[in-house]
Amino acid sequence: MNRFTLPEWVQQHLFQVHNLDSVPGDVLEQIKSRLTKFNVEEDPEVSIVIPAYNEEKNLLQTLSSLSEIRTTYRTEILVVNNNSTDRTQDLLNACGVRSIFEPRQGISFTRQTGLENARGKYILNADADSIYPVGWVDVYVNALQDPAVSCVHGNHSFIPSKESSRFGLACHELIAESMFKFRSKTRGFTNVLGFNFAFRKADGLKVGGFNTKRQRWQDGWMAMMLMQVGRIQRVTSPDARVWTSDRRLIIDGGPSQAFMKRVKKHSRNLLKYAGIKSFDDNHDTPVKA
Description:
The protein has helices spanning 8-11, 25-35, 59-67, 88-95, 107-117, 136-143, 166-187, 201-206, 218-226, 247-251, 255-268, 270-273; strands spanning 46-52, 75-81, 98-101, 122-125, 130-131, 149-153, 156-159, 197-200, 231-234, 242-245. With 289 residues, the protein is α/β, with parallel strands linked by helices.
C-alpha cells in the first residue's frame, strides 16, 4: 500500500453527489443492480449494519463500494435511518436497500436497533461516509470463526477533503497506528471504531447490546463488554483497512489541530495504556485517530 496516494479502487467510488436528483440514472441503476446480491430472503449469515442521519450526499459512495464486495457468505445490508430530514430514505429506496427507521435520536440507539433487527449471525458495523474493500466481509467473518475471538477490527485511512492533503493525513495515520499498537496490550478496546468492527450477534446481545445511556464511545464500550466472552483481535490484512471521510478531523479544526488534540490526550493516558493507571471508562472516549 502506498500511504501517500489515494488508491484507484477508492477513487472509483468518490463521485460527487450534491443530492439524489444529481445522480445519473445509469449510475444509480448499476449500483442497484450490484446490490441485489444482498437481497437475501432467508437466513443471511452476515449483516452489514449502517446508521444513517442525513447522509444523502455520502451514502451512495458507501453503497457503491459495498456493492463491489465479493464474499462466500450470504450477506444482507441493513441501514438504520435515524430521523433523516434530507432524502436519505429516498436514496435507500432507489437502491433497493433494506432499511428501518429509528425515531430516537443518537448513534447508540441507532446501532442497538440495527443489532436487534439484523438477521445475520455476524454483525459487521459500517458508516455512511466510508469506503470498503472487496474482501472486507470475508476477512472479518473468517477471523470470527475462532470461538476465542469475540470482536475484530482493523485500520483506517482518511479520504482527503479540500481542507487536507493525503500526505498530511498519511503522516497522521502512521503515528496514530503506532499508538494503537502500544495501547492494544492493555486497552485494545479503545482502538475499536464504529465504522470498522465486527462481532457475533449472539455475543453482542449476551453482553447487553450497545449502551443506549451514552451517545459517545458506543463502539469502544461494546468492544470492552465483548471481552467478557472472548478476546479482541486487530486484523492487519489490507481487506480490513477502511477509507473514511476526514470530516471529523475538519470539525476538530483541521488535521493539524486534530492531531495536536490527540497527542495531548494520548500523552495524558500513557500510564493507562501501559497498565500502570486504571481507566475511567465513563470518560475515556476513542475517536477516529
